[in-house]
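Q: Here's a chain of 303 amino acids. Please give me its 3D structure as tokens.
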Amino acid sequence: CRGWAGLGELLAHLRQRRAERPLINTHNFKGLLFGWVGATLLRLPLVITQHGFTPRSRKQKFYTWLSLQLCRTASVNRVVCVAESIAVLCRQASVRAEKLQVIPNGLPATDGLLPRHAKRQRWLAGYVGRLSSEKGPDFFLDALIPLCRQHPQLDAVMLGDGPERETLLARINEAGLQDRITLPGYQTDMSVWWRQLDALVISSRTEGTPMILLEAMQAGVPVVAFGVGGIPDVLQDRHNGLLATPADSAALARQIGSLLTEPAMARDLIDNAKRTQLDRYDLKALAERWSQLYLRTAREARA
């Protein structure tokens, strides 16, 4: 696996390998453009993986529109969506149904739940992600600031970095909660945090099938989330997680509060989430689905 300095270098490599009929698989907007040009010029099979869209600015809306239009073209053999909600958007944009397939993200198997830190008197809710609008860090604070005032044993941590960091810090300081809601920055090792968190809160405005959701399920950390994107494909409310109406911070706060006050329910959610991740989001099984898709696409392209 290697990176490419630009389109010219990629095309040169593909021309060298053209006789082998390599299959191209793209994973972001720039990759889609490069891959589409290569596949079109050299008549190579092309698979596009759609991880989700964040059409909040004019530029992002254009990228979303163009991505969907390219998916409709004859150069694209397959469009693999990581969540059914993304496949719905593709169908609405008139991408042919026979091109579409949903293969969610997955995780490799582990030896079991991570060991938890010794029982603490404090209870810790966590946000993990980029501190930018699409991930909803403002919604997280809308829910956690009143909850921290209501529950003296509750703390919160926001792991990640991004353009909204200073605005978020100002809100926390204004609320006088700088000792209880902390922003340690970007993290390279989540294992320490999984042993400390009592809940993962996903307050995103838009999502595909977030890897952090699957990681929390595997690690034995209950999840409270807005029901956006592919999250409702994974979680059933009060079975293997807690769901709130998208963008409703008060509903998100109520769900976090119920998790905080009902430890027996938290244990049930953990057990059920672990089974869901193993049964439906195991990387080995999903890799086999990818393998079969590649073989089928290559075979059809040669026919």
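Q: Can you summarize the key feature?
A: The chain has twelve helices and ten strands.
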